[in-house]
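Issue 218. Parser rejects a valid record. Input:
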Amino acid sequence: MPSQLDARLAALAAQDAAPALAGLEDSVWTQVQARKAAAAAGGAGVRVALTALALATGLAFGALHQPRHTAAGQPQVAELGLLSGDGALAPSVRLGGGA
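Output the parser choked on:
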């Protein structure tokens, strides 16, 4: 005894309904290009704002940062600390076995 669902499924299987794929690829690429253009336009302002913020932060830090002075009154550069006279006392040098 076939049910109403079986009858409907049989009628659906008997139909020849091929999906219309003509022009689908062109439509998809058009949408992709539109989204890409919209994303590029919106991101440019954010990039400019972040660049300006980074530049302002760097300039403010450079202007407000007071350099450390050694006992002789010379400014000490952090990268050259290991090459100074007391660089042998640095923990990295002491633990590492020397510079």
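Fixed in the parser; the record now loads. Residues 14 and 61 are 76 Å apart (CA to CA).
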